[in-house]
């Protein structure tokens, strides 16, 4: 392996390993701090972010995206509504559903996040247009991969839970209970 190829391989390994892990942890910790500042839990904050990113949706859609139960989503929605971040509206096509919409065009969250955005913008000034395009492509691609792998993990977990339940039921002892033995004796 040539020196340039080896150093590219080493750098790629560092990006995929240590740097990606460090970045991910930093992002999680930052968003926990943002949630704290807003008086929200981290899950509430990220659900709010999903509504900002994807637009109005039903609670069932938010549940499907996040993997949270309908009960957990009900709690998230109630807390976000109480805090003034979202409002519920009747679904015009299905009276049983409610559509979740952002209540504010520019929420207080922007004031909390803007210092980081400004620092990142200043950091990006160090890169030329080709490098910025590569960074944008990398972020878009890795974000798509993270969403895809989250969905795959969720699907595998659900599948494994279903199999485990089926296995548990199939291998459960079939000895009659005391009640059924008493009935049989009558």
Task: Describe what you observe in this structure.
This protein is mostly helical and 186 residues long. It folds into 2 domains: 108 residues, Winged helix-like DNA-binding domain superfamily/Winged helix DNA-binding domain (Arc Repressor Mutant, subunit A); 46 residues. Helices cover 74% and strands 6% of the residues. A 3-stranded antiparallel beta sheet has the order 1-3-2. The longest helix has 43 residues. The C terminus is likely disordered.
Predict the CATH topology of the largest domain: Arc Repressor Mutant, subunit A
Number of domains: 2
pLDDT < 50 stretches? 168-186
The number of helical elements comes to: 7
Distance between the termini: 82 Å
* Class per helix and strand makeup: mainly alpha
Shape summary: globular
Radius of gyration: 24 Å
The main β sheet shows up as:
3 strands, antiparallel
CATH architecture of the largest domain: Orthogonal Bundle
The CATH class of the largest domain turns out to be Mainly Alpha
Number of extended strands: 3
Helix content: over 70%
Strand content: 5-15%
With strands numbered from the N-terminus, the spatial order across the biggest sheet is 1-3-2
């Amino acid at each position: 392996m040539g020196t340039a190829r080896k150093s590219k391989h080493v750098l790629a390994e560092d990006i995929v390993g240590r740097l990606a892990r460090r970045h991910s942890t930093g992002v999680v910790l930052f968003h926990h701090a943002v949630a704290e500042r807003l008086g929200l839990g981290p899950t509430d904050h990220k659900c709010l972010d999903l509504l900002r990113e994807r637009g109005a949706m039903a609670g069932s859609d938010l549940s499907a995206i996040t993997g949270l139960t309908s009960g957990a989503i009900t709690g998230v929605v109630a807390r976000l509504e109480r805090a003034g971040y979202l409002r519920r509206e009747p679904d015009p096509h299905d009276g049983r559903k409610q559509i979740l919409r952002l209540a504010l065009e520019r929420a207080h969250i922007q004031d909390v996040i803007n210092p980081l955005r400004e620092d990142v913008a200043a950091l990006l000034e160090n890169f030329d247009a080709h490098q910025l395009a590569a960074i944008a492509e990398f972020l878009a691609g890795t974000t798509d991969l993270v969403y895809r792998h989250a969905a795959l993990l969720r699907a595998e977990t659900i599948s494994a839970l279903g199999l485990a339940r089926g296995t548990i039921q199939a291998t459960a002892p079939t000895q009659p209970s005391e009640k059924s033995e008493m009935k049989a004796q009558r």
